[in-house]
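Incident review: delayed structure delivery

Summary: a single-chain prediction request sat in the queue longer than the usual turnaround. Root cause was a stuck worker, restarted by the on-call engineer. No data loss occurred. The affected request and its eventual output are reproduced below so the record is complete for anyone auditing the incident later.

Affected input:
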Amino acid sequence: MSKYIIHGGLTLSGEVSIRGAKNASWKEIIASMLTQHSVQITNIPQISDVRITESIAKSLGAKILKTGEHSIEISTPTITNSTVPHGTGEKSRSSFMFAAPLLIRTGKAIIPLPGGDKLGARPLDRLFDCFKAMNIHTDFVGDTVVFSTEKIRPTTYTFPKPSHTVTEVLIMTAALVDGQTILNNAAREPEIDDLVEMLNSMGAKIKRHPTDPGQIIIDGVPWLSPTKHQVIADRNEAVTFAVAALATEGSVNILRINPEIIKNFLDKVQQMGARVETGRDEVTVSWTKRLRAIDIETEPEPGFMTDWQAVFSVLLTQAHGCSTLIERIFPSRFQHIPTLEKMGAKIKFFNPKIKNPETYYHFNLDSDRPDYFHGVKIYGPSELKPINVAVNDLRAGACTTIAALAATGESVIDNVEFIERGYEKLAERLVSLGANIEYIKI
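Output delivered after worker restart:
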């Protein structure tokens, strides 16, 4: 188990460049397998989720050449295996994304039930429903899912609730299906648009409706061509560094990021009293005075991103007043709160009084449980204390790291492998901003 030893209480200030997006890079590796031609992808982050995806891709026939520190070339002349291996396949939810190239090129995909963060049930029923309409059969054999088809058909499908990952699987699958597929109430994240941009550069015909961005229209093409694509910047990284600076009363200039893709976050911290200055591909976020409490609800794009709420909760512990944070995307995403409470944060769980939970929450209600809370009230400012803790979740791990930076004294964070799933050299880059972190890699 690798660990961070953090001596907190220091102000973070400086400049940091953002790497390629975790939630775009590994999906674009999978999308490259839709063609037998070579695909070059640049701005690939050096994170474990990418390495796991590359490992699975190689086991299925992909040949991957590292062409630079953050660039690769992928070619998959033949799919040699239609079975995503257990082990690596169970470690990440990337496994289900492989259904698209496997079905397109072999008519079959055998996939272990996915892993990833333990946030509650993933809405895979939406994938199964649309696959059924596309003449793709779904069978469950033990702990694996077997997809099969003789011929994939185009369809029109309306999501009951938007789903980021399922939208991308369906886009990739429909891109090479003869006819027009229309997805209504589809997810709207910029990472999806980045995937569409890559596929269109390969010859696909995919577009959002000009007046309804929730509708995606895919006109299938017979083949895809070689391309070179640069991965979009990671907005979760940008938010993490901004929160780290604000939580330690500092300032950070964030480079290689389009401020528009984190606009909702920037609007919130400005409302709290932070200073925000934006450029074409950079943003500076600065603490100038005590931040004010604020109320937040996570929502699908273009709302406040669920991946931001764990790190943002640290910032709320340092704001003056009572902040409310409601999680509407996942049924269970407050695993980080007990750690913050142990560090001295004043937090109270609650469940919002909602007239119609079915339309208010974006998770499937049958995945909810009576012991899950969907809201917290955070009272600040709190003086955070150091802690020794083992993390078991990516975003909760980033949250704990920032809390340790804001606390005075020595904290030890074990299991930082979870953090490395989504952040490249996080400790090293925080040190460049003035943090005191010893990274012990085991």
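Verification: The first helix runs from residue 22 to 31.
Action items: add queue-age alerting; document worker restart procedure.
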